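OP here, attaching both records as promised.
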Amino acid sequence: MKNIRNISIVAALVIFNLSIAQVAIGKQVVDGNSTVLDFNNVAGNTKGLILPATSGLPTGTLVNGTFIFDVTDNKVKVYENDTWKPLSDAGNSSAVVANTSAELGKGVIMGAATSTADGVLVLESSDKAMILPQIATPHVNVKNPYPGMICYDTTSKTLAIFDGTVWNYWK
């Protein structure tokens, strides 16, 4: 009986690892079939995605579309075409709590079995995207935003990024 249970667990793990799963956070079902990561975007949502706060620019294998909050100059940045581009003016990183724990593993990969990208959360897909948390007028509704918070503003229909001082909006 124990062998059947162990074989069932191993089979389930193999099937789970081979599948390209969609992930919903804070809800039961992913919206649409072209989404790899989806958040609970109910009316009145005030929770966004917090970017990693780094001290300087990351090294290693960098991939276009990598986002960080750089505490050395207090700017949200994106890696694009072999260079880091600021998405915000200099903000304020005084609220950032430094993570001093040792890094273990290579992070979480969603949408593929493996990735050459080095990140805490890597989304890999040739035909699926991430739906950002959606917040109406975050500069009004998010009472205590954290530096590096990112969301989609449903009112202005823009990408909203908090730099620790002000919200920056991108069309």
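Record two, same layout:
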Amino acid sequence: MAVPQLVAGSGVFAAFCAFALVSSITPGPNNTMVLASGVNFGFARTVPHVLGISIGFGLMVAVVGLGLGSLFAAFPWTWQVLRVVAVAYLTWLAWKLATAGGVQDREVGKPMGFLAAAAFQWVNPKAWVMAVGACSTYVLHGNVWLNVLLLSGLFAVINLPSVAMWAVFGSAMRRWLAQPRVLRMFNVGMALLLLASLWPIVGARP
């Protein structure tokens, strides 16, 4: 009887889990960067990046659920500022990825770390849309604090394997991208996808 007391019906719980899975596993800035990191640095060196995304996003959901999301409703201009900063930062990341060195440089290069990946969530438009959408749509518990805890915890748990899958896939591709020219073409392609991932979300409103 513990679970029915914690969640507002199995249907809502299942719907939220499906939302978290689909939004976490589909292409976006995080998954594009993790895929590229898996190719360039391997899975083991990408693990801090993956953990930073999942834990950082879980904390972001908690903060949004506790009231930060209402800031956008009270001051709409803050969302416009976020979009400008996000576009500028992601454009810079895309440039860095497109101009990354060849295979001889990727073993000594530096992948994104835990703290940087966690901080990146705050300028990731898709992460904002996911967090605000989840907190404004799903109620798993009548108590605000417990509801936020459930939402953020479940999102982090579901997000982790979803993002890690992209790193595993990227790592598996390393052998086919050993030639510097092929790797450079791959990085340029990932940079373009990173920029393309902004298109459907820069016009969204939380």
